[in-house]
Specification:
Elements lengths: L1 E5 L6 H13 L4 E4 L10 H10 L8 H8 L11 H17 L2 H8 L5 E3 L2 E3 L17 H9 L5 E4 L6 E5 L2 E7 L6 E7 L2 E5 L13 E7 L5 E6 L3 H10 L4 H9 L17
Parallel strand pairs: 1-2, 4-5, 5-9
Antiparallel strand pairs: 1-10, 3-4, 6-9, 7-8, 10-11
Helix pairs in contact: 3-5, 7-8
Length: about 270
Amino acid sequence: MNIAVISCIHGNYEALDAVLLDIDQQKAEKIFCVGDLVGYGPHPNAVVAQIRALDIPTCVGCWDEDIVEGLNACDCSYPSLLAEKRGIQAHEWTNKEINPENREFLAELPYSLKEANLAFVHGSPHNNHEYLLPELDAFVALERVLSTDADVLFCGHTHVPYARTLDAGQLQVSVGRGENAQQISFASPLKRIVNVGSVGEPRHGRPNATYVIYDTDSQEIKLREVSYDYQKTCAAIIEKGLPAIFAWRLAHGLEYAERADDPTHVCTR
């Protein structure tokens, strides 16, 4: 069975519409979403309404959480005060824009999803704000997958797609210290982490939307890249009064972050 996994739509309805068409052409039998339906983009209500209408199993993203619970992202996740101000501005705009029905839907989203030997989270099984980067230490990466009791862990959050195979092997863990330390060994079968990238705000160097098709029979992973009229979304970002830099980075498929303009700025949360 082919399944599609999408993430990080961020209020970009044009991108979502193009990806859903591509998913249909790929003859996927089921779609999963790993969160961040809203934030940054100009059409949060349209995106949430489409996910609801299609009854797509979805886990909550960090932006979805923030709209429901209030801004709770650590300030340290912003590289500068300017970046932080832009994030807060986008949060406040989205918070005012989202309608009650869609807010309630976001509030009811689960933290994670499970289907057979597949697990789905937004950031990581431990924290929605944790980035599972491709260069993550292999032992830590394996622990994240093992904690879900799955063979394949699908995630998003970084906006950059990749598929990583963690080879089967013998692991040894030391519990305790000194002479009393207990050595525990166990075998781990082959595991995978699949980051599905971003539908609505890609950061892999191109404006194209990304998502994943996974064949549960052959275990083949296809990283899909879909072009769409991103300029229409860029124009809507400007029209809605969101920070213009959001349109720039969408058009370039890149994150934009100034160097920290206040190195003394520390987290107050």
